[in-house]
Amino acid sequence: MEQTVFSADQAADDARNGGASEAQIRDLMRGISAALDYIQHLLEFANTAGESQDSLMREIDVRSNNLRAGLDETRREIANSTDVAHEVQNTTRSTVASKTDAIRTDLERISAELETKAEGANKVLGAIEDIGKGIKLLALNAAIEAARAGDHGRGFAVVAKEVGNLAQSTMQRTNEAVDLIDLSEVTQALRKSMANIGSDLDSLGSEIEASLATLQERFANMSERLSDISEHNQVVFELLSGSKDASARTRNKVTWARTDTRTLATTLADAGTAQQKLAGFLKTNHLHDDPTFDRLADIKARGKIRIAIEPAFVGLSFRLRPGDPLRGLDADYARALAKWLGVECEFVEHPWDLLTELLFVGTKPGSPTADVVWSALPPSEFYKGVAYSDTYTYLNFALCRRAANSSINRLADLDGKVLGIINDPVAFTVLEEQGLRWAGNENKPGGIARLSNLIAYSDQTRLHDALADGAVDAFAVDQPIFHWAANNPESPWHGRIEVLPGNILPLPYYYTAAVAADPSSYNLLAAINEFIAGFRPTPERAAIEKLWQGQAINHHLTYKDEAGNLIGADELETLYHAHCRKHGIRIDA
Asked: 422 or 328: which carries more pLDDT confidence?
């Protein structure tokens, strides 16, 4: 940068020595000043991207520490669960062995009793067999005696008597056999043993169930830990994605500034061609060094107003299908402004947190700047070199949750939770004022809830999915961004997310348009304010508000109510009149 300044001074000296007029020198210096301002803006934007990356890295550090703690705790849980499993295994093995031995002893005892009974039965059967043999012999004798019937019948009577005696003996032996073969005691013993076995098995089952319950509790704890780790990983991935984007933006802006600085240095190296080459440099980068340049007049001359807008702001400026025109609250307002000015509306689509940069540099080297930012912009001293319009819409700053997640109903319920927001410096400020604490402000007193993490999203396409898919537990967001998404059946998130009623802030949120805070933009800003005032009472404006946020909210807040001595039309008018006096420009009545 010092080399560039030296070259500019040298060019001015050479021009004087060559007899250049004072007016030529002034023109040259204005051109150099415009070019240096342009490069300075690039470097400031690179620094802003670096600050965003620093914020993301702080949150990554917090989440990484949480992840490390979760892994350590899980490791301990696994070690404890392994010990318990070994203990359960040993206890079960010992208990089962003991119960098995008891069962074996009972069965052996029953077997011995049955063997004793069997031996008795065998003896009885042997006696019965002997009796049978005796009866058979007597029957034979009776037959012989019968053959000798007649006078010898008395001998048969003797045999008959012996047969009776034998029958009596058989009956006695039969009774003895009944007693010996009676298995009722064995049956009772068996039943008792079975009862004991059942009781033992029930006891064993209870012991095993208790041990398994302990294991189940251990593994449930591990599952919870692993779930926490999974959540940490998901958040880290979100943060790393944002950090990667911020890093890419920083590199892009630094490379851009370095390239243009070298080009400018080369342009000013030769005093004889410096003015001509400088004019070419300014034209290539759409920079204006003419003090009479007026942006509103330029817009009307070209018949087109370039409006910087975020293309993926559901509810504000978005399209559901590629190639569709942008729709949403801001898109409708921007078209109404262009119509009121009598020019065509050209949307310059760019990431939301970079939109104000487009008032000073294009979306890429060689592209024109935007005339105005009309895209959910709350006035803040964070945005440098910007002048704000009057308020065009008021809205609630809403707390959103996954559908039917009744555990989150207010900010205090966010303790230990992950909250998502848009990468908006105003959002950080208002949440801190409402008592939320996170890594960046954890030591500030007066907190009502300590967040596990606060994730700021620059990629607006991720907002709704982040909540619906569980990357964050809740989202603090401008109501129109989630109102349509939650309530319109055409929305991919209908029924998956919901907006809690009311405003989480004591006062409504509000949006303004923005232009570059330089004299050339004063007439444009004054025209925008005139449009806002005239459009406010119209049915068209009421329909826009109802469609995209459910109702029109009326209030009186403006950029003048914010801290930091912000610039609006009144302040810009003072700069404009001073500029006109300095350059002798006539101001039309």
From this structure: 328
- Single-letter amino acid code for the residue at 111: S
Tell me phi and psi for residue 119, to 5 degrees.
-60, -45
Backbone dihedral angles phi then psi of residue 345, each to the nearest 5 degrees? -95, 120
DSSP classification of residue 318: B
Give the C-alpha separation, 270 to 51, whole Å.
38
Q: Identify the CA nearest to 532 among candidates 512, 550, 516, 547.
A: 512
**Rounded to whole angstroms, how far apart are CA atoms 138 and 377?**
130
Please state, in angstroms and rounded to a whole number, the distance separating the CA atoms of residues 479 and 499. Answer: 8
Q: Is the pLDDT of residue 353 over 90?
A: no
Structure tokens at 185: 């005691």
Residue 328 and residue 393: Cα distance in Å, rounded? 13
- Give the predicted TM-score (pTM) of the model: 0.61
Could you tell me if 517 and 386 are in contact, meaning their C-beta atoms sit under 8 angstroms apart? Answer: yes
Instruction: Name the residue among 344, 354, 338 with its Cα closest to residue 303.
Output: 344
Going by C-alpha positions, the residue among 508, 479, 511 that lies closest to residue 391 is: 511
Which pair of tokens denotes residue 542? 């009421």
Interaxial angle between packed helices 522-535 and 329-341, expressed in degrees from 0 to 180 and rounded to the nearest 10:
110
Q: How far apart are CA 294 and CA 292, in angstroms?
A: 6
135: helix, strand or coil:
helix
Question: Could you identify the residue written with the tokens 């991935």?
Answer: 237
Angle at 298 between CA 292 and CA 301, to 5 degrees: 125
Residues 310 and 462: beta-carbon distance below 8 Å? no
CA-closest candidate to residue 512, choices 355, 368, 361: 355
CA neighbor of 98 nearest in space, from 197, 213, 190, 211: 197
User: What number is the average pLDDT over the span 389-407?
Assistant: 95
Q: pLDDT for 549-568, tens place per residue?
A: 999 999 999 999 998 899 99
User: How many other C-beta atoms can be found within 10 angstroms of the C-beta atom of residue 303?
Assistant: 11
Q: How many helices (H) and strands (E) does the chain have?
A: 13, 13
Query: In the sheet where 509-516 sits, what is the strand order?
Result: 344-349, 304-309, 372-377, 509-516, 386-395, 567-568
Ramachandran angles phi, psi of 128, nearest 5°: -60, -40
What does the alpha-carbon distance between residue 557 and residue 564 come to, in Å, rounded to a whole number?
15
Give the Cα separation of 229 and 303 in Å (integer).
Answer: 56
534-555: average pLDDT: 95
Neighbouring CB atoms inside 10 A of 192's CB total: 12
For residue 418, CA distances in Å to 13, 39, 435, 474 come to: 61, 38, 15, 7
Exposure pattern of 367-396 as b/e (b: 16+ CB <10 Å)? eebbbbbbbbbbbbebbebbbbbbbbbbbb
